[in-house]
Amino acid sequence: MTLALGVLVSGSGSNLEAILEAIARRELDAEVRLVVSNKRGAFALERAARRDVPTAFVDHEAFPTREAFDADVVSRLRGRGVEAVVLAGFMRIVTPVLLEAFPDRVVNIHPALLPAFPGVHGPRQALEYGVKVAGCTVHMVDAGVDTGPIVAQAAVPVLAGDTEASLAARILREEHRILPRALAWLARGELVVERGAGRPRVRVPAS
Amino acid sequence: MTLALGVLVSGSGSNLEAILEAIARRELDAEVRLVVSNKRGAFALERAARRDVPTAFVDHEAFPTREAFDADVVSRLRGRGVEAVVLAGFMRIVTPVLLEAFPDRVVNIHPALLPAFPGVHGPRQALEYGVKVAGCTVHMVDAGVDTGPIVAQAAVPVLAGDTEASLAARILREEHRILPRALAWLARGELVVERGAGRPRVRVPAS
């Protein structure tokens, strides 16, 4: 069963592109039904339009609360039959309004090896801390900031002379690899959130 | 110049063995002048004795304070001409008494990708959190617990079905690789602690 995806973006949309390419290569059995940007003119919208993927700009400043914004987005996603939501460089904190509409079906990609360096500047924080291994994380979104159960991670070296831009670019290449793979697991029903003692954890296929 | 090392241990000493093997293979220009264990009968003492490395058991329970214990250890290390100290599975928090005796010359190996999972159960914490990438860190020791500037890190995958023991063993193999390499940088004077704005960071040779 082809998974109906909604992708929420704020920026250039390179992870959206990676998703669309994985679909085109038939590595990911999904269809992007709607791309929503909270930023007018985000390049992600242009990438989507080029591939005839429906888009919407939803101005978060037009809503009185985060919840009201999320309710509008949920309504648009449901209107397109979306089953799972990908936050692909979406620079807004989501609320339970979105999470409860798509339980265990909201996925985020974060440019750090969580639980290290949550928040908005993963690569910068990694450089400032002085780590020698950085990376990225695909995780299920919960009510915290970058705290949800981890689906996939990839590591990259931090090299002498790295800048925030060079490190972020190296991490991004891994994001483009692990995000479509994680979504393929989700599409095939192979991604299971296990809730027992302690934190919920995600079981994925043996690699 | 051959680096005179002291190695502090509490357990089996497999990292000590990795250091001694790297020295034997001439990959590390160092000499282990003394192995100190705070645990009587630690297997590390036997490993050292087999290779004719001097050993000492120093019972931390015989000292009224951590500082008094450290002062005794420092005295023994200095008595052997030790220039740099490796905490290789040493399960004691060290005090400024040791750190000030060997400034920027106390190195620890930790079984997690710091700053994630400091403390005594790195692999267990990583499994409980549900990360998909784990690893190990060589760092300079400062007054905090596993907070000092990072010298080297290596990542390993967390596999489906991993137990604490299987993950710890996979991490340990990387420890045996990166610790001697980091000590070789130290021995060659290639390991520089840079102190500027923000955290001190360690510059190492390009790999």
Report on the structure:
The structure is a homodimer of 207-residue chains. With 207 residues, chain A is of the alpha/beta class. The first copy, chain A, has one domain (3-114, 140-150, 179-203): 3-Layer(aba) Sandwich (Rossmann fold), CATH 3.40.50. Chain A is built from six helices and nine strands. In chain A, the strands form two sheets. Chain A has a seven-stranded mixed β-sheet with strand order 3-2-1-4-5-6-7, sandwiched between helices. Chain A has a two-stranded antiparallel ribbon with strand order 8-9. In chain A, a hairpin with a 6-residue loop joins strand 8 (192-194) and strand 9. The two termini of chain A are 22 Å apart. The relative contact order of chain A is 0.16. The interface between A and B is medium-sized, with 33 and 33 residues.
Question: Concise description?
Answer:
With 207 residues, chain A is of the alpha/beta class.
What is the general shape of chain A? globular
Biggest interface, CB < 8 A: A-B, 33 and 33 residues
Q: Spell the H/E element sequence of chain A.
A: EHEHEHEHEHEEHEE
Q: Say what oligomer this is.
A: homodimer
Contiguous uncertain segments of 5+ residues of chain A: none
What is the CATH third-level topology name of chain A?
Answer: Rossmann fold
The CATH architecture of chain A would be 3-Layer(aba) Sandwich
Please, what is the average pLDDT of chain A? Answer: 96
Count of helical regions of chain A:
6
**What strand order characterises the main sheet of chain A?**
3-2-1-4-5-6-7
Instruction: State the helical fraction of chain A.
Output: 25-40%
Helical/strand content category of chain A: alpha/beta
Tally of extended strands of chain A? 9
Specify the CATH class of chain A: Alpha Beta
Question: What does the radius of gyration of chain A come to?
Answer: 16 Å
Reported for the largest beta sheet of chain A, the result is: 7 strands, mixed
Strand content of chain A: 15-25%
Number of domains of chain A: 1
